[in-house]
Amino acid sequence: xxxxxxxxxxxGPLDVEEAARIHLACFGAAGIMAVDSRLGxxxxxxxxxxxxxxxxxxxxxxxVSDGARRQGIGTALIGEFFRRARLxxxxxALLEVAEDNAQARRLYAQIGFREEGRRPxxxxxxxxxxxxxxxxxxxxxxxxxxxxxx
Length: 150
Description:
This protein is 27% helix and 36% strand. It is of the alpha+beta class and 150 residues long. The chain has a single domain, classed as Gcn5-related N-acetyltransferase (GNAT) (Aminopeptidase). The chain has a 6-stranded mixed beta sheet with strand order 1-2-3-4-6-5, covered by helices on one side. The protein is globular.
């Protein structure tokens, strides 16, 4: 029946505003955008999507643009995620990361995430290569009123 009332297509750059509006309506304020403060919100540097369910906050997506990497943007986004999750009542943060994403895994380890599981063959890469997901968790710092994740 779905095929009769709609068709599916890839989400594209022109859909982002509407997708964000739908996401907000369905899940509440569960997204963070990092912007270049020198340009007055005009240049997005990265974003995070998350959800809070009772005492758990799951970081669903963390992305930093190529030109803004290794400048603390990811760390700042995680700090703000902790702050907002704590305000929403969460005590634990969890996420999954691709096993082949060494840079992200290093960042999460530095911030104190610890591995608690593994999902084999979770992601697919070019050439149908399968990559496992590492499941990570950590306590949200009690002092998460600041954006510092440590």
